[in-house]
Design brief:
GST C-terminal domain-containing protein; single chain; globular; glutathione transferase activity; mainly alpha; Glutathione-S-Trfase_C-like; GST_C_Tau; Glutathione-S-Trfase_C_sf; Glutathione S-transferase Yfyf (Class Pi), Chain A, domain 2; 92 residues
């Protein structure tokens, strides 16, 4: 998982969004997973800001957009769902 996150981090480079200067279709396709990033980091026992600083900044930037904030679950709710799944199915 960390390798995939690092690939996204590298793809961002110095751009604020995946395809350049403006929020676009690439961001729209990936942004639903942004709420899962803190959970991935917590489960993987790493700090997203240290491992993938550009991706962490991108997720923050996207989360500040009204359209994203209204339509993507907050990370704490995603964490509740992750722990529910872990409790129900274990670490299989």
């Amino acid at each position: 998982m960390v390798d995939a996150l690092r690939a996204l981090d590298a793809e961002l480079g110095d751009k604020p969004y995946l395809a350049g200067e403006a929020f676009g279709f690439a961001d729209l396709a990936v942004v639903p997973f942004a709420a899962w990033l803190p959970g991935y980091a917590r489960l993987g026992e790493f700090r997203l800001e240290e491992v993938c600083p550009r991706l962490a900044a991108w997720a923050e930037r996207c989360g500040e957009r009204e359209s994203v904030a209204k339509n993507v679950h907050p990370p704490d709710k995603v964490w509740e769902f992750i722990t529910y799944l872990k409790d129900k199915y274990g670490d299989k």
